[in-house]
Amino acid sequence: MTRGHGPTVRRRRLAGELRRLREAAQLTIDDVADRLECSASKVSRIETGQVGVTPRDARDMLELYGVTGDEQEALVQLAREARKRGWWHAYNEVFTGAFVGLEADASSLRAYQALLVPGLLQTERYARAVIRAMRPGAEESEIERRVAARRARQRLLSEESPPEYWAVVDEAVLHRVVGGPEVMAEQLSRLAEAARSPHVTVQVVPFGAGAHPGMEGPFLILGFPEQADPDVVYVDSTSSGLYLEMESDVRRYARMFDHLRAAALKPDDSVDVITGAAWRFDSGSDTSDVERTKE
User: Fold this and answer.
1) Which of 108, 132, 163, 289 is the least crowded, having the fewest Cβ atoms under 10 Å away?
2) Where are the domains of the chain?
């Protein structure tokens, strides 16, 4: 697929443009709501990309802002394209918010995880064990639905033109026994295999690195190919996620990621450590002595 041309990114781009044009017309959100006879919350949700905008609403807003001709038609067409449904809509009970749509359009993904293997690199059995542990009251059918949704997400990395994926994980990820030793051996072998792909880099932050910026929690920085689509940071949590788009926030997390990369083992050394941990799980050996040295 062509990166950066999906409906979620188009909706985000249109939202930013509508906000910019409203401000250029020196109108407030309340002004727009009054003129278009709608709620201020609707205008606000459109401008933040929380909801889509119909071509008719887009045209009405643009006329109010004094935008006509080819520029208006181009933005109305953008509104049409932004309303197309991505593959993830088949799992709308699993995926909430814009995360998966943004991920699908990103040209680069920089992820940090402190406790778990990142979702895009999880095996089916590992993912099932994680989901079951995090949703102890869920029906088996819901768990299987979520596993299927995660597997669908993972196709992103096997596309013809996949994004550049760089994952940094804490060494704790290699020790936490999820699903049992057999599942861990399979998962860590898969992680090492993925790290050998030309578009995937995996690094391990050893315990010996001490305190580091990632202790604040997991996050993902999504980069896009078009200058009109600035980077966004997704801060993960069990029940929801926080999107950070202000340049200062994105810059802060980018700096955190650079510090994490510097504190981590080199990519080749990380693969060796991951492979060693997989072997120890497979052989039944104690995994508490994972190599912590860093060249």
Assistant:
1) 289
2) 7-84, 90-283
Question: Exposed, middle or buried, 85 (CB in 10 Å: 0-12/13-18/19+)?
Answer: exposed
Neighbours of 161 (CB within 10 A): 9
Q: Which amino acid is at 206?
A: P
Provide CB contacts within 8 A for 37, sequence distance 6+: none
CA angle 49, 52, 54 (to 5 degrees): 140
Domain 90-283 belongs in CATH node 3.30.870: yes
> What tokens were used for 204?
């391990």
User: Under CATH, which number does the domain 7-84 receive?
Assistant: 1.10.260.40
> To the nearest 10°, the Cα dihedral for 180, 181, 182, 187?
90
CA-based angle 71:75:79, to the nearest 5? Answer: 165
Per-residue pLDDT of 58-83, as tens digits, reads 899 999 999 888 888 888 888 887 77
Query: Could you tell me the pTM of the whole model?
Result: 0.80
